[in-house]
Amino acid sequence: KEGGERKGEERRDSGWERQQKGPCALWAMRLLAVALAALLAQAPTPDVCEALNVTVSPGPTVRYAEGDNATLYCHVSQKRRTDNLLAVRWVFALSPTQEYLMIKMTKFGIVQYYGNYTHHFHKQRLRLLKERHGTMYKFLILNLRPTDQGHYICKVQEIGKHRNRWTAWSNGTAATEVKVISSKASEDPTFEKTHEAWKFFE
Protein backbone atom coordinates (compact mmCIF):
# COMPACT_ATOMS: atom_id res chain seq x y z
CA LYS A 1 0.00 0.00 0.00
CA GLU A 2 2.77 2.35 0.92
CA GLY A 3 4.38 1.86 -2.51
CA GLY A 4 1.09 2.55 -4.25
CA GLU A 5 0.47 5.66 -2.17
CA ARG A 6 3.97 7.04 -3.01
CA LYS A 7 3.41 6.50 -6.72
CA GLY A 8 0.07 8.25 -6.50
CA GLU A 9 1.62 11.17 -4.67
CA GLU A 10 4.45 11.38 -7.25
CA ARG A 11 1.92 11.48 -10.08
CA ARG A 12 -0.05 14.21 -8.32
CA ASP A 13 3.14 16.18 -7.63
CA SER A 14 4.36 15.94 -11.23
CA GLY A 15 0.96 17.01 -12.51
CA TRP A 16 0.97 20.00 -10.16
CA GLU A 17 4.49 20.94 -11.35
CA ARG A 18 3.40 20.82 -15.00
CA GLN A 19 0.43 23.05 -14.18
CA GLN A 20 2.74 25.51 -12.45
CA LYS A 21 5.56 25.40 -15.04
CA GLY A 22 3.20 26.04 -17.95
CA PRO A 23 1.97 29.51 -16.88
CA CYS A 24 5.36 30.42 -15.39
CA ALA A 25 7.25 29.52 -18.55
CA LEU A 26 4.77 31.45 -20.68
CA TRP A 27 5.03 34.47 -18.38
CA ALA A 28 8.85 34.30 -18.50
CA MET A 29 8.83 34.15 -22.30
CA ARG A 30 6.54 37.16 -22.50
CA LEU A 31 8.75 39.08 -20.09
CA LEU A 32 11.82 38.19 -22.15
CA ALA A 33 10.11 39.33 -25.37
CA VAL A 34 9.13 42.66 -23.79
CA ALA A 35 12.66 43.20 -22.49
CA LEU A 36 14.15 42.37 -25.91
CA ALA A 37 11.78 44.77 -27.68
CA ALA A 38 12.67 47.54 -25.24
CA LEU A 39 16.37 46.86 -25.77
CA LEU A 40 16.00 47.05 -29.55
CA ALA A 41 14.01 50.26 -29.30
CA GLN A 42 16.82 51.84 -27.33
CA ALA A 43 19.57 50.53 -29.64
CA PRO A 44 21.47 53.49 -31.06
CA THR A 45 21.45 54.22 -34.76
CA PRO A 46 24.82 54.32 -36.54
CA ASP A 47 26.72 57.53 -35.87
CA VAL A 48 27.13 59.66 -38.99
CA CYS A 49 30.82 60.44 -39.38
CA GLU A 50 33.29 61.72 -41.94
CA ALA A 51 34.53 58.19 -42.68
CA LEU A 52 34.19 58.43 -46.45
CA ASN A 53 37.33 59.31 -48.36
CA VAL A 54 36.26 61.58 -51.23
CA THR A 55 38.61 63.14 -53.78
CA VAL A 56 37.91 65.29 -56.83
CA SER A 57 40.11 65.48 -59.92
CA PRO A 58 41.46 67.39 -61.66
CA GLY A 59 42.33 69.81 -58.89
CA PRO A 60 42.77 71.84 -56.84
CA THR A 61 42.40 74.23 -59.81
CA VAL A 62 41.74 73.49 -63.46
CA ARG A 63 41.45 75.88 -66.40
CA TYR A 64 39.22 75.43 -69.41
CA ALA A 65 38.60 77.56 -72.45
CA GLU A 66 35.18 79.07 -72.97
CA GLY A 67 33.07 76.63 -74.98
CA ASP A 68 35.01 73.56 -73.82
CA ASN A 69 33.49 70.59 -72.01
CA ALA A 70 34.63 70.10 -68.41
CA THR A 71 34.99 66.63 -66.92
CA LEU A 72 35.22 66.36 -63.14
CA TYR A 73 35.70 63.07 -61.31
CA CYS A 74 34.52 62.28 -57.79
CA HIS A 75 36.23 59.20 -56.36
CA VAL A 76 34.82 57.52 -53.24
CA SER A 77 36.49 54.96 -50.96
CA GLN A 78 36.45 53.61 -47.38
CA LYS A 79 32.76 52.82 -47.06
CA ARG A 80 31.82 51.53 -43.61
CA ARG A 81 29.92 48.63 -45.19
CA THR A 82 30.47 47.22 -48.65
CA ASP A 83 26.75 46.67 -49.28
CA ASN A 84 25.79 50.26 -48.42
CA LEU A 85 24.68 52.64 -51.18
CA LEU A 86 25.91 56.12 -52.07
CA ALA A 87 24.09 59.37 -52.83
CA VAL A 88 26.23 61.89 -54.73
CA ARG A 89 25.61 65.65 -54.99
CA TRP A 90 27.47 68.31 -56.96
CA VAL A 91 27.28 71.82 -55.56
CA PHE A 92 28.39 75.04 -57.27
CA ALA A 93 29.87 77.71 -55.00
CA LEU A 94 30.75 81.29 -55.83
CA SER A 95 31.85 81.75 -52.20
CA PRO A 96 31.61 79.77 -48.94
CA THR A 97 28.26 81.44 -48.25
CA GLN A 98 26.86 81.01 -51.78
CA GLU A 99 26.33 77.34 -52.53
CA TYR A 100 23.84 76.01 -55.07
CA LEU A 101 22.88 72.36 -55.39
CA MET A 102 23.13 71.49 -59.08
CA ILE A 103 22.62 67.80 -59.57
CA LYS A 104 22.26 64.63 -57.51
CA MET A 105 22.43 60.90 -58.08
CA THR A 106 20.25 59.09 -55.54
CA LYS A 107 21.22 55.86 -53.81
CA PHE A 108 19.24 54.04 -56.51
CA GLY A 109 21.14 55.74 -59.36
CA ILE A 110 18.41 58.22 -60.33
CA VAL A 111 19.71 61.62 -61.49
CA GLN A 112 17.86 64.71 -60.24
CA TYR A 113 18.34 68.41 -61.03
CA TYR A 114 17.80 71.31 -58.63
CA GLY A 115 17.10 75.04 -58.63
CA ASN A 116 17.90 76.89 -61.84
CA TYR A 117 19.51 73.71 -63.15
CA THR A 118 16.07 72.17 -63.66
CA HIS A 119 15.63 74.38 -66.72
CA HIS A 120 15.91 72.53 -70.01
CA PHE A 121 18.91 74.59 -71.13
CA HIS A 122 20.98 73.63 -68.08
CA LYS A 123 19.82 70.01 -68.04
CA GLN A 124 21.21 69.62 -71.54
CA ARG A 125 24.62 70.84 -70.34
CA LEU A 126 24.97 68.69 -67.20
CA ARG A 127 25.64 64.95 -66.98
CA LEU A 128 26.31 62.77 -63.94
CA LEU A 129 27.48 59.21 -64.59
CA LYS A 130 28.50 56.32 -62.35
CA GLU A 131 31.68 54.40 -63.17
CA ARG A 132 33.90 51.70 -61.65
CA HIS A 133 31.24 49.82 -59.70
CA GLY A 134 30.02 52.89 -57.87
CA THR A 135 33.39 54.19 -56.67
CA MET A 136 33.87 56.83 -59.38
CA TYR A 137 31.33 59.43 -60.50
CA LYS A 138 31.90 61.54 -63.62
CA PHE A 139 30.37 65.01 -63.82
CA LEU A 140 30.23 66.66 -67.24
CA ILE A 141 29.60 70.35 -67.88
CA LEU A 142 29.14 70.97 -71.59
CA ASN A 143 29.86 74.18 -73.48
CA LEU A 144 31.43 76.11 -70.62
CA ARG A 145 30.54 79.76 -70.13
CA PRO A 146 32.22 82.44 -68.00
CA THR A 147 29.39 82.13 -65.46
CA ASP A 148 30.42 78.50 -64.87
CA GLN A 149 33.62 79.66 -63.19
CA GLY A 150 33.75 78.84 -59.49
CA HIS A 151 34.20 76.02 -57.00
CA TYR A 152 32.57 72.64 -57.60
CA ILE A 153 31.98 70.50 -54.53
CA CYS A 154 31.24 66.78 -54.54
CA LYS A 155 29.25 65.75 -51.46
CA VAL A 156 28.76 62.04 -50.88
CA GLN A 157 26.59 60.30 -48.31
CA GLU A 158 26.78 56.60 -47.47
CA ILE A 159 23.33 55.12 -46.84
CA GLY A 160 22.46 51.68 -45.49
CA LYS A 161 19.64 49.69 -43.95
CA HIS A 162 19.35 49.79 -40.15
CA ARG A 163 16.38 47.96 -38.60
CA ASN A 164 14.66 48.00 -42.02
CA ARG A 165 15.07 51.77 -42.38
CA TRP A 166 17.44 53.72 -44.62
CA THR A 167 19.99 55.51 -42.45
CA ALA A 168 22.96 57.77 -43.17
CA TRP A 169 26.21 56.09 -42.11
CA SER A 170 28.94 58.51 -43.19
CA ASN A 171 29.67 61.61 -45.27
CA GLY A 172 32.53 62.90 -47.38
CA THR A 173 33.27 66.10 -49.29
CA ALA A 174 35.88 67.29 -51.77
CA ALA A 175 36.14 70.26 -54.15
CA THR A 176 37.97 71.74 -57.10
CA GLU A 177 38.07 75.19 -58.67
CA VAL A 178 37.15 75.64 -62.33
CA LYS A 179 38.42 78.71 -64.16
CA VAL A 180 36.90 79.56 -67.52
CA ILE A 181 39.21 81.49 -69.83
CA SER A 182 37.68 83.76 -72.46
CA SER A 183 38.04 82.81 -76.12
CA LYS A 184 40.73 85.42 -76.76
CA ALA A 185 42.85 84.40 -73.77
CA SER A 186 42.56 80.72 -74.67
CA GLU A 187 44.40 81.42 -77.93
CA ASP A 188 47.57 82.02 -75.90
CA PRO A 189 49.99 79.09 -76.57
CA THR A 190 50.88 78.93 -72.86
CA PHE A 191 47.26 78.29 -71.97
CA GLU A 192 46.96 75.56 -74.57
CA LYS A 193 49.89 73.65 -73.08
CA THR A 194 48.52 73.89 -69.56
CA HIS A 195 45.08 72.84 -70.73
CA GLU A 196 46.46 69.81 -72.58
CA ALA A 197 48.36 68.79 -69.45
CA TRP A 198 45.10 68.80 -67.49
CA LYS A 199 43.44 66.72 -70.18
CA PHE A 200 46.22 64.15 -69.82
CA PHE A 201 45.55 63.73 -66.11
CA GLU A 202 41.83 63.37 -66.65
Low-confidence regions: 16-20, 38-45, 193-202
Cα Rg: 31 Å
Sheet with the most strands: spatial strand order: 2-10-9-4-5-6
CATH superfamily of the largest domain: Immunoglobulins
Helix content: 25-40%
How is the main sheet built?
A: 6 strands, mixed
- Assigned CATH class of the largest domain: Mainly Beta
* Count of discrete structural domains: 2
Q: What's the SSE pattern?
A: HEEEEEEHEEEEH
CATH topology of the largest domain: Immunoglobulin-like
CATH architecture type of the largest domain: Sandwich
Shape summary: elongated
Structural class: alpha+beta
List the helices and strands and how they pair.
Elements: H1 2-42, E1 53-57, E2 61-65, E3 70-77, E4 85-95, E5 98-105, E6 111-113, H2 120-125, E7 126-131, E8 136-141, E9 150-162, E10 165-181, H3 189-201
Parallel strand pairs: 2-10
Antiparallel strand pairs: 1-3, 3-8, 4-5, 4-9, 5-6, 7-8, 9-10
